[in-house]
Amino acid sequence: MRTWGPLTAVSLGTFMLLLDVTIVVVALPDMARALGASLGDLQWVIDGYALALAALLLGVGAAADVLGRRRLNIIGTGVFALASLGCGLASDAGLLVAARAAQGLGAAAMFATTLPLLGAAYQGRDRSVALGVWGAVSGAAAALGPIVGGLLTEGPGWRWIFFVNLPVSVASIWLTLRVVPESKGPAGRRIDWAGTASFAVFAGAGTYGVLRGGTHGWASTAAAAAFAVSALALVCFVLVERRAAQPLLDLRLLRKPAFTGVLVGAIGYNAAAFGVIPYLSIWLQTVLGMSPVRGSLVLLPLAGMSFLVAAVGGRLLHGVAPRLVIGVGLLLIGTGALCMAVLDADSSWTSLVAGLTVTGVGAGLVAPALAGAALAAVPPANAGMAGGAVNTFRQLGYAVGVALFGTVLTSRMQDSIGREAAHTAAGGGASALHGTVPADAVRSAFASGLNGASLTAGIAGLVAGALVLVMVRTPRDTAAPVAVATPGRAPRVEEPVR
């Protein structure tokens, strides 16, 4: 590497934005107590960020090609920093959710421009090294999020999980201005604003419908209206993309079963592997009384095994068909979630270890293989679009998973301790778990709710894995090139063993 400046600047921003996907998980109980937040509010604290990131990623990436990638990256980092300040100063749950959505907007601008900026700054072997380091940083951010969140929450307080972004953002902007060159896409490109807006409405309204359906009933006016708006927005997105000269997503790619299967795998991966984690964190701290740091350490088998398997698997799985790597990984994720659906009123944190470990193994197989499988399924000219679509659907899967599994958890709690008592517990957030409902009933109800959520996640993982095994095939059912991402090494496309 002749210069590490651009890589350092880009990796700094990437680490920060990906850290914020998971860093709030361990802080949720403290947020609920401080802001009087309900379970629904806590869901939106997570989903507001993930949804904004997913819904705007493709559109912002296209805008960066026209307006300048470095320029949009800096603007996005500034928006992210201001929104982080708003999160830390939020006086109620509504303001926190709004600030989290603004964070997601800034993160989308940062994330969409990272790889193009690296591609413009480095060539040849330097580019391969830069992409390898960037991949390792991305994996480390997801693994360290809950631990960093636990340390900050138990130390200076949960607001500092947002305040810490301010000096990092300033450093990232300063370094980007000094060492990262500006770059743009081919001349004559246009920004697909209509496609961006319709996809954002589709994703947001659909997730809102799932959340409202869980708390107010699936036949409620609010839920039905949200689903209707989501369906209409999806129709608009399809019509716009079919007519657009430069669409965000070329719908003809969806005719390729292999590419569609990869997108199914991306949704199923983030939903099944991580969608239940926020509720496990609430259970560990609120019901079992663990500290934020101890609660984050319980989740370490998932992050640790994921990182270890991703590092070792790149060397051991040379030439293995992507459908096998991703499909088996998703089956393991589904099995791990099912292993956690065994809780009762007397269960302790040790009941989660086996399931988290198996899930971590599956995640370590899936994460490095998804991007390579997407690129192998489409023509080279669509490589950027395919990579952006995979990242979009991963974040969308996380947002929908958090919403859906929270709905299942609430429903099971209602069945366990009675509709009125469960409504009191869910409506009052984590703090209400120590209210009028007897402690034994709370433990039993929350365990039942978590079992339902984990069971649903397990089924989602198994179904996604089965679909990937069936759909992600090359024409002759041979192994497609696999993008191997090993921490500390450059990702490379390897031809399969014939």
What are the secondary-structure elements, in order, as H or E?
Answer: HHHHHHHHHHHHHHHHHHHEE
Shape: globular
Q: Helix tally?
A: 19
What about the largest sheet?
2 strands, antiparallel
E-strand count: 2
The separation of the N and C termini measures 34 Å
| Estimated structural class | mainly alpha
Q: Give start-end ranges of low-pLDDT stretches.
A: 430-435, 475-498
The largest beta-sheet arranges its strands as 1-2
The percent range for strand residues is: under 5%
User: What is the assembly state of the chains in this entry?
Assistant: single chain
Brief summary of the model shown:
The chain contains 19 helices and 2 strands. It has helices at 5-22, 28-35, 39-67, 69-89, 93-121, 124-154, 160-163, 165-179, 193-216, 221-243, 257-274, 277-287, 292-298, 300-316, 322-339, 353-376, 383-417, 419-427, 439-471; strands spanning 482-484, 492-494.
Give a verbal description of the structure.
The protein contains 19 helices and two strands. The protein has 498 residues and is an all-alpha fold. Strands 1-2 form a two-stranded antiparallel sheet. A hairpin with a 7-residue loop joins β1 (482-484) and β2 (492-494). α6 packs across α13 (292-298), α15 (322-339) runs antiparallel to α16 (353-376) and α17 packs across α18.
